[in-house]
Design a protein that fits this description.
CATH architecture of the largest domain in chain A: Orthogonal Bundle
Oligomer: heterodimer
Helix content of chain B: 10-25%
Structural class of chain B: alpha+beta
Radius of gyration of chain A: 24 Å
Shape of chain B: globular
Distance between the termini of chain A: 69 Å
Helix content of chain A: 25-40%
Strand content of chain A: under 5%
Radius of gyration of chain B: 23 Å
Number of helices of chain B: 3
Number of domains of chain B: 1
Chain lengths: 355, 254
Amino acid sequence: MKNWIAYLLLIVSVLACSKENASDTETYEPTPLPLNIPQIFSNNIIPPVIPNNNPQTVEGVALGKKLFFDKTLSANQTIACASCHAPQNAFTDNTPTSDGIDGIFGTRNSMPLFNLAWNYGERFTWDGKELSLERQAIEPVQNPIEMHSDWDDVVDRLQVDNDYPELFRLAFKTSTITKELTTKAIAQFERTLISANSKFDRFSLGQATLTPQEQNGLNVFMDEEKGDCFHCHGNPNNPLWTDNVFHNNGLDATFTDLGLGGVTGDPSDNGKFRSPSLRNLAYTAPYMHNGRFATLDQVIEFYSTGLQQSPTIDALMKKVDQGGVNLSAQDKADLKAFLLTLSDPSFLSNPGFQD
Amino acid sequence: MKQIFALLMCVALALTSCGEDMDDNALSNANINFKFSHTWDNTLINSSNLTTQTLTNENGENINITRIRYLISKLQLVNSSGTTFTFDGYKFTDLENEDTYNFTPENNSIPTGTYTLKFVWGFNEEDNIDGAYLDLNSASWNWPTMLGGGYHFLQFDGMYNVDTTPSPFNYHNGTARVSVGNFEQNFAIIELETPLNITKNATINVNMNISEFFKNPNTWDLNVLDTPLMPNYNAQKMMQENVMSVFNVEGITQ
């Protein structure tokens, strides 16, 4: 019996020893950095989506930020993610479509980037082609009219850099750089781009008041007999100001860009694009998936009088027979005043989001 | 050692016998869940044909559906002696997403017996609290405060006269506005008479016949009532009347 206990003790101590030895060499863990969820979101909507295999960490976000602003990702090292997604434009740019390293323009308007972790359906881009932020980040790097890189070359350039191998080790516990880890870091940074400090947010929290014009604009937005904007673009209880769902909003009678239909192959999805958030639209002109409208006034006029009938037009575009919702001049002005209360200037100047 | 062994055996036996007792108790309770199906009369409607099927309503218009989402709450089973078991939660169904067709309440255990099903169409006045449900806010399911606030009960969008000149309809149901600032509750209590003899764990199958929204007692003329209907008091009350014949219990699977 005594021998048996002695052996048992020996085994236990050996196990304990080996564990300690292991922890000596692998003590390092990246520091968790949970998303800072704004009160206006936690009060109103369900928690954000963070993939289990890519938790937010201090080191991962810092690496992602460096990559986001680094021109190394493009083939000739002339553009970065931030070239078309600039902080001062709520992480979009100010041209209808954007040119890549060869000066060739794409077909879609660069999307603003904020509150991305609250896209519950996790279909990103205008046509929903990208099913996660991580996967989305692969595309612009290798797209021939964007960064026009070969991912293997990008990884090689990062691997021989003086800083990146150590930054990847800190973020992911390996200094061997891969495309997957690179896009994971970029996605972590993108998830930190949270905008929740507009005048309307403060109004909802009881910290600001709307002018009578802004209040009437909200009523136009919420009135099914007037603007009827809320069925697709959120409401005071949904501060995302989008449903992140795909609709044909009546831009065209025939389609040169199939949108969601080009992704699903289903003709009934032709001409559908994801509703963009109305938050920060003061900074994100021009508008629509191809940047066809230069000003917010043009957008409001389009919904008022410019709708085009087509087989897949959304039934919510109910006044298409009359060209649109036919708002009065006063209602249009008031609606615009309300929409501008969704602007969050502190998002543009957030020091955590600058190069 | 022998004593210890004997003691261990005693403990083990005691634990096992306890467990059996609990099993015996469990036999008189049943776990309930719900499965909703959707039809247009005899045509099954699901995510694969929701937007492609052309249907004819009672008034004779050919229609195509764009989307249907609806809310029911306060599901209850009433047994033959009049005792009511109320299930927690609410069921928000999007016909595009078949995962939402099923509903398992968190506390879903009831004594076996014979029951009838009862639930609230939408939310009743007590539950229809503006902004109170984060998942429904996230789905932009809110009903405008100028119309009384709270939540939609139904969003049924589509096109009618699709064979001639297609026009949109937005059959949306929620709190009824009598006049500016004056609102009237518009939920409905759905009581389905079909007896449900629950002897063990069971799935209760409920069917929604969508065509009934246009049929009974009000034959709906989309040429007159297409959109906007949310602020239209009479349309809202007609919807409340028509929803009464929309649901049917199809039976139980156990």
